[in-house]
Amino acid sequence: MTQPEWYHPDRENLTWEVFGEASRHLSQEIVDSGWFPELIVGVARGGLIPAGAIGYAIGVKAMGAINVEFYTDIGETLPEPLVLSPQLDMDSLAGKRVLVVDDVADSGKTLDLVVNLLKETAAEVRSAVIYTKPTTIFEPDFSWKKTDQWINFAWSALPVITADGSYQEGA
User: Fold this and answer.
1) Mean pLDDT in the chain?
2) Is residue 6 part of a domain?
3) Domain with 121 in it: what CATH number?
């Protein structure tokens, strides 16, 4: 199998093919738990693609997003994660079982912030990620794989395309 141009042998590389397997496995883990969400909230941006895949796999159409900024570049973060606009309609969570989905629980600060924020309104909140790192302060309810490596995600490994046809690193 030919590796994508962004593949790096010293990193965890989540190709689109492996993502398909990972999201189905994670979805099966959620179903097997016997707990079923009424609504899925993806943490933008990294959690949006996994949230959509899980929603399709388990048949949940009610989807939402919460915008959180924490990473500013490879290995660089803000002091604490920040919830950004547009804001999630918290009233729509009232009395519901909500699954929060993100790509990775690295420090765990983003998941901790989001899950605790949603618990203020939702009846029950659980979390799912593709990867969990040993450094996390927040253990997600569902996780596909543990790793201590930097992760190249298929959807964010290449540089941003600009209007003039050039590429912009680190977005």
Assistant:
1) 90
2) no
3) 3.40.50.2020
